[in-house]
């Protein structure tokens, strides 16, 4: 499946079960869709280890609230933190000040995971990996000179595999897989993938089961008395839209300068290897030039901008 291609999920073999009457109406989205049933990711027989892949953004936070209300059958939330030096500082602050206390107050588990190197037993953050002088690869989806996205390993190595190691540690096997709930809402259904690279896990989409959009997620969060979380992504993520880069430059100029410095560092290394330059935006220019100070750019749609297609990031 190509990036941005609509997913065709095979839901025909998944049985549906009635929503418990004691829980009332599941959501406005379900009522509008006239749904009489919900999938096993919301209610039904126990399939062993159940966990939400928590990203700290609006969809993940809405799932946290829904779990606290008993409206989805998940009590464990796994936050694969790619590094305190890599994640958006605003997201990390929200998770500490709001998500973790909310989970604790409602008897939910919110566990923060890190990528730990097997040989050394030490954490390695995504930024540390990018800044290693001897590295010949770039794990983030930088843009090549023609504007096309480059290869991406960050989601796999710092999100998917980190969660997979944890579910395996908790006893998930290929015969008895863990069920991982993804924070993809109805307006982003194209991000829901039928593929699964981890044999001891299978994926569920609780927000899709309930017919909820991002605006519904925002309402759920606010109704629970929580402020809306900021967009969750690494501060140097090349999948940002131009307006996100503009906001970063305007609101967090020091962080924007660090992104410019990282782009320059990566290109210095590529110069030494005799390779073409890469960029953090689609404009084939250095970041400081592509996102000029005080100048608003016209929005340009690009299906590779603005969201991680896998659903493990930006939720």
TrEMBL record:
InterPro entries: Rossmann-like_a/b/a_fold (IPR014729). The lineage of its organism: Bacteria, Bacillati, Actinomycetota, Actinomycetes, Kitasatosporales. This is Phosphoadenosine phosphosulfate reductase.
